[in-house]
Amino acid sequence: MRLTDAGAKSVSLDEIDLYGTELYRSGDPHAAWRTLRETAPVWRQEAPDGTPFWSVTRYRDVVDILRDTRRFSSEHSTMLSVLQRDTAAGQAIHLMDPPRHGQVRGATISALSMRVMRRHEPKIRERVAKLVAGAIADGQADMAKLVTMLPMLVAGELMGIPQDQWTEAAHWTVASMAPEDPAFSIGDEAATLRAAHVFLFSMFIELIQDRRESPGTDDLISLLLGMEVDGRPATDEEVLVNCYAFIMGANPTIPQASSHLVLTMAENPDLWRRVREADRSTLPLTLEETLRWSSPVNHLLRRTTQEVELGGHVIPEGGLVAAWIGSANRDEEIFADPYTFDPVRTPNQHVAFGFGSHRCIGNSPAQTGVQLLLEELVEQVESFELTGEPRHLGSNFLNGITHLPVTLHPNGG
């Protein structure tokens, strides 16, 4: 989506459709979210199949919903595109409520910790540096395509995925989250989903079998095979759906935040100059602002476990509530001048990784990947030049870019 300055815009409520994907490909969700925060912070809409859902757009309401796992359950679905019960509900880490959620999280978090990331950082930095140098050498690069590889460069080994499968794994992961987008579609939405699922599940079934025969020690698949759920060993099905859940969680943040970072700096040369000339100690602040600014995941879906009164609305038991992350990260009550990218913004209480017990378990790899890319861009790139029109992802779940043609001008070039 376009990260516009919606500060002076308003939209008629009759015109707002947060479900349709075209809004995110070519429209301005920020204007719609701002209108809802001001006039209808809890807003009922029906999906095309008639299923109602309630949108929550203010920061404090979003945080309250994500932290309240007792009344707002994840054990149904976390995406508007899956309004009916997800087939992995109650088994995959993102589709579990406490205490079972904690069992899977506790068994696997060591593989994705910042301590592990620091140990692997030299190797990851070398890969990221090569990616940036290659883009410079090519003259013109499609950065949106290049950065789809970043999650695998950062976490492919940690997950236990062989390097020769990284490219296809990255492609089909995003395709499974945005099957209707032309960049990934191979016919219709159902055909694209089938192809994505066949590749990803076949890959993981083979890797699970390999790990059973030759167990590893600290890769994610080996840890999943060794975990217990409700006091018993995890089944192969539970391991499989969690392998899928982890790769789905690994892919959105790094490439989407990275693409928006490059686009923002290309459109604002003075801002990029400011970032380059600042003390390197401020780059972690720029990383956090990149995450707030891009908000790679637009929303998280929850299902009420009881009747809930929210903002003057009564939501029935079993009601579906979309907590809009992208809107919360532009809330004027929390963020001063929220439509400005401030590379040294502090404090910065963004919720790009969610909030509460379900805060993204892959936040350390994601932060590492974007941070290292930012550092290498600062070291190697003097300026960015857009050489074509960016194309934005048609998805109400991911805030992505599918085409970003740029020339990267080298430092001293």
Automatic annotation (TrEMBL):
Gene Ontology biological-process entries: cholesterol catabolic process
SUPFAM superfamilies to which the protein is assigned, alphabetical: Cytochrome P450
Protein origin, superkingdom: Bacteria
Pfam families in the record: p450 (PF00067)
Gene3D superfamilies, per the entry: Cytochrome P450
GO molecular function: cholest-4-en-3-one 26-monooxygenase activity; heme binding; iron ion binding; steroid hydroxylase activity
Secretion signal span: none
PANTHER family in UniProt: BIOTIN BIOSYNTHESIS CYTOCHROME P450 (PTHR46696:SF4), P450, PUTATIVE (EUROFUNG)-RELATED (PTHR46696)
Entry's family note: Belongs to the cytochrome P450 family.
Protein's UniProt name: Cytochrome P450
Annotated source species: Sphaerisporangium album
